[in-house]
Amino acid sequence: MAEKGEDYTVPDDYANLDELAAPSPVENPHERSFYRHESLEEDLENEQDCSRWDTYKKRKTLEQRGGQDGDLTELAAPAPVRQSHRSPTSDKPSTEEDKKGYKPKPERASKFATQIYTISHLIFWSIVGTLARLGLQTLTFYPGAPVQTGVVWANFGGSLVMGFLSEDRRLFREEWGSNPTYQEEKAAKRLDEERGIMSKKEQSEADEAAARKQHSAVKKTIPLYIGLATGFCGSFTSFSSFIRDVFFALSNSLPVPGSHPSSAVRNSSATVHRNGGYSFMAVLAVILLTTCLCLGALQSGAHLAIALEAFTPTLPYAWCRKFLDRGMVVLAWGAWLGAILLAIWPADRPGGPDGRASWSLETWRGEALYALVFAPLGSLLRFYASVHLNGKIASFPLGTFAVNIFGTILLGVFYDLQHAPLGGASEGMVGGGRVGCQVLQGCMDGFCGCLTTVSTWVAELKGLRIRHAYVYGCMSVGVALGFLVSIIGSLKWTVGFASPACVT
């Protein structure tokens, strides 16, 4: 294992990220007859108890050091630089320390540096996740497709990756060192059976629980893991687009492809009239298909991590800490800045490299660039909402619920603006014209798509107790759909929609 050179100073609130706190999707990988079920509520309560205990110990330590002036933390706090028995010109421990087996503690990155690394990973992976979602939606939107909701495959893919990351013990093996893999646990058990040594079931379960707890505690401190689980998976999936498709199914306006994908156009007028009973069945079909498929993907991703454990590589500790994290700061902010500059000066502008002056050729900004500009904002807002709100109620992830509902409301508002005459229908300013329509589409695909998440939502459904999971899941879908019915439905069923001024 590579020698550790630097640890991170992680804020305590990071423990509220349900992508990291939720128990593993596969709780009994060895298929024992008896095993202990762990729920998300228990994990969050344990985290809060540990946090309160650490705060209590720190306060008592300051009071003891401060004596009568214990209330004056400015005086009672320890010195910024503690005295050491080391020589000022040498980092080697003294002879007395060497005899005691003293080992110097690894240097710790400041809390500010840790947050910069985490934010940079979130920015970069939210851009990658948005591109993956938009690309997969385009690939799965074709005539005769058995599933007409293209975002369902993006939600499936993000949930699959989330399940793999939750169960994997190989990628970040050097981060937690002694935590055994599933293959090593099986080998140790087989060796004990050959020697005739059978460890006690209680001790075995305790060891496995301790390993899982160590695994969960350490991965919360890795900016790359947070970027993949929160940034990529959360941006690859979209709860607001899922609820939008549920509303389209309810209103019999689900877009269908009218031609080959190379020139596919979304056509909502190709559907025929149907009664309310069929619309109710369509709503159930979209909800059940997406929810069950994503829950199955979460479980399948975990099974895939176990099956591929022997072939999964391990990321070098030193390379991640010294090169990847620091390089990600430049790469992430540079990619975001590049997207902003390309949105201002697009390469397919009329009179550009192709020399043809036609605004119909300018499609980059509406289909991709504006989404990449707004994607990091949505991902960062979701991250901080989860950090500050998910720990409030252990049985109801308030942060994820809030961003999913808020993002769905914004998507409904943006959709109405995009399909309503803002400057008068006679002036052709539906949705604010071509640029306004493209900006609104970027807000829906980028900001709302990354602000809302399905991968975290299904991970929470899997981790919560059954009754709490049903309450949380039904409230999320019901409240979000109710807002879309009131926002989009009120315009659709009164004034009606106009054709947007850009490709959507």
Task: Describe the protein's architecture and organization.
By secondary structure, this protein is an all-alpha fold. The chain contains 18 helices and four strands. The chain has helices at 18-21, 40-66, 73-76, 95-99, 111-139, 151-167, 173-176, 182-195, 201-219, 223-236, 239-250, 276-307, 317-344, 364-389, 398-418, 433-451, 455-463, 466-492, and strands at residues 6-8, 107-109, 256-257, 266-267. A two-stranded parallel ribbon has the order 1-2. Strands 3-4 form a two-stranded antiparallel ribbon. A hairpin with an 8-residue loop joins strand 3 (256-257) and strand 4. Helix 10 crosses helix 16 (433-451). It is globular and about 70 Å long. It starts with 5 loop residues before the first strand and ends in a 12-residue tail after the last helix. Residues 1-5, 67-105, 198-202 and 259-264 have low confidence and may be disordered.
The structural class is mainly alpha
Sheet with the most strands, sense and barrel status: 2 strands, parallel
CA distance, first residue to last residue: 50 Å
Spatial order of the strands in the main sheet? 1-2
What are the secondary-structure elements, in order, as H or E? EHHHHEHHHHHHHEEHHHHHHH
Question: Residue share in helices?
Answer: 55-70%
The number of helical elements comes to 18
